[in-house]
Design brief:
CATH superfamily of the largest domain: Thiolase/Chalcone synthase
CATH topology of the largest domain: Peroxisomal Thiolase, Chain A, domain 1
Shape: globular
Bound molecules: oxa(dethia)-CoA
CATH class of the largest domain: Alpha Beta
Radius of gyration: 18 Å
Strand content: 25-35%
């Protein structure tokens, strides 16, 4: 049994903030942000929450797949900015979309969340434990940004993306998913608190340079491994969807892989880094091309450190 993507949906908050609209006290500039990161604007949640964005994206994906919520028997939702400490944001989405059977739960893998959630859902489907699944990445990172820290707050934004997977007895769909973590680097990208430590959610703290280097290294390793394990060369990849953290990281990826840059999806300019939502949001830029077929590769790396890759063939 294979898991085949049959629908994709996204959602973003109403409010979009461009670099020039950021608080003056930050002592930053559109020029610095755009040239060092590629970010030009980001969406910021006001009335939206992670669950409301996830719900909107899920309903859009179900509409695109022409699947009714009652037919979904699994939701795996990746987030580190859930609505509540508990219950899981996935169960809020389950209620919101009117799905009562099956199971819904969250996974926490920060920026690699979507690939981690995809791996879980794919495994459930391959084991025959689910037939139709929603894989969701949804975040409101604006809520855990320290708006006085220019080295982090300019980098992130809010949004959600959802994919419907269907069990099919075919060779199409998710061919390969590999996820990794190394907790030795837990402190390099971390919040300043949490329920059990400070009784708050905390704010993002990041060793930017170290994360940058590790991201490039893991993109390279993961892509090499994926190509090798699937007997492919870079020319066999039709679409490459990297996590959208920094345009300079993506440019490094284009350089070392030798991929035709037209095949690489980039929208960090309009969403900034949306963590677990970044891969489906980037994929939405080429929705028709994705569903029209080919070899599609996802790559991500983020807090944990946690990283991973996936190959989908449609
Ligand atoms: O999604 C999870 C993965 N996250 C990432 O992959 C992020 C990886 N890291 C990065 O993208 C980059 O390291 C950053 C964008 C975070 C920083 O870029 P950088 O080129 O590594 O800059 P830096 O941290 O080395 O800082 C260079 C200078 C510093 O000033 P001095 O010490 O040279 O005087 C910073 O204080 O830039 C300064 N700076 C800023 N200046 C204006 C840092 N942030 C800003 C800012 N505006 N927003």
């Amino acid at each position: 049994m294979n898991s085949v993507p049959i629908g994709l949906g996204i959602a973003a908050p109403k409010k979009s903030v461009d670099n020039k609209e950021l608080p003056k006290e930050l002592d930053t500039s559109d020029e610095w942000i755009a040239s060092r990161t590629g970010v030009r604007r980001r969406y910021i949640a006001e009335n939206e929450t992670t669950a409301s964005l996830a719900t909107e994206a899920a309903l859009a994906a179900l509409g695109h797949a022409k699947v009714s919520p009652e037919d979904i028997d699994l939701i795996v939702l990746a987030t580190v900015t859930g609505d509540y400490t508990f219950p899981s944001t996935a169960t809020i989405v389950q209620r919101n979309i009117g799905m009562s059977k099956g199971v819904a739960f969250d996974v926490n893998a920060a920026c690699s969340g979507f690939i981690f959630a995809l791996d879980v859902a794919d495994s459930y489907i391959k084991l025959g434990k689910a037939k139709k699944a929603l894989v969701i990445g949804a975040e409101t990172f604006s809520k855990i940004l320290d708006w006085t820290d220019r080295s982090t707050c300019v980098l992130f934004g809010d949004g959600a993306g959802a994919m419907v997977l269907q069990a099919e007895d075919s060779n199409r769909g998710v061919q390969y998913c590999k996820i990794y973590s190394d907790g030795n680097y837990a402190d390099s990208l971390i919040t300043s608190g949490g329920v059990s430590t400070t009784q708050t959610a905390g704010f993002i703290k990041m060793n930017g340079r170290e994360v940058f280097k590790f991201a490039v290294e893991k993109f390279r390793e993961s892509l090499d491994e994926l190509l090798r394990d699937n007997n492919m060369t870079i020319n066999d990849v039709d679409l490459l969807v990297p996590h959208q953290a920094n345009l300079r990281i993506i440019k490094e990826l284009i350089k070392f892989s030798g991929i035709d840059e037209k095949k690489v999806l980039i929208n960090v300019d309009k969403y900034a880094n949306t963590s677990a939502a970044s891969i489906p949001l980037a994929l939405s830029e080429a929705k028709d091309a994705f569903f029209s077929g080919g070899n599609i590769v996802f790559l991500s790396m983020g807090a944990g450190y946690a990283w991973g890759s996936a190959l989908i063939r449609l």
